[in-house]
Amino acid sequence: GAVVSQHPSWVICKSGTSVKIECRSLDFQATTMFWYRQFPKQSLMLMATSNEGSKATYEQGVEKDKFLINHASLTLSTLTVTSAHPEDSSFYICSASPQGRAAFFGQGTRLTVV
Amino acid sequence: AQKVTQAQTEISVVEKEDVTLDCVYETRDTTYYLFWYKQPPSGELVFLIRRNSFDEQNEISGRYSWNFQKSTSSFNFTITASQVVDSAVYFCALSGDNQGGKLIFGQGTELSVKP
Q1: Could you count the other beta carbons within 10 Å of the beta carbon of residue B12?
Q2: Model confidence over A21-41: pLDDT tens digits?
Q3: What residues of B are in contact with residue A96 (Cβ under 8 Å)?
Q4: Interface with chain A: mutation pick from B54, B103, B109, highest number of A CBs within 10 Å
């Protein structure tokens, strides 16, 4: 299957700092990527759709100024959690679809804000 | 609105038992895609299957099989002769035709296979 790589796998940061998470499609070009968030023992919830060369589309209730998304190339999308707080601690995972139908996921990033 | 329901929150079986994970979905799209993913404790999401709405054939892959029934809006997943390594959370998901891979996930079923 297609390969999507996410980095870092885990990160611990201090409250008030910003954290950047990268999502790369390694063997295909992705004009669209998706960012999900998963709290412990819960399902995955879509946060935003990352569009190459244009603004991201955010789901209702997701603060666009807090979760900055940049999709500057066809193989890379980044999610920056700005001014992180303990409630932002979660598992963040990205996905991309080589042909728009089969979604492949990155390894996920476990963010802990202390 | 689209919705996926996995009514079984947790299932516990003994190794070698067969187990079926239920998935019921709601959508108004005539063309859509259904998925199953496995999430082991490491957190990654492992793709298991994708099925489009026009293909109701059941599928078998080794010990895994899937039963898609549009009449009941269900896409159930059966593991035959379960093994301890099958222990994980399993998610059923739905994607509309024009959403380019954007997925709506069910709540997940945590499967525990005991030796």
Answers
A1: 12
A2: 999 999 888 888 999 999 999
A3: 101
A4: B103
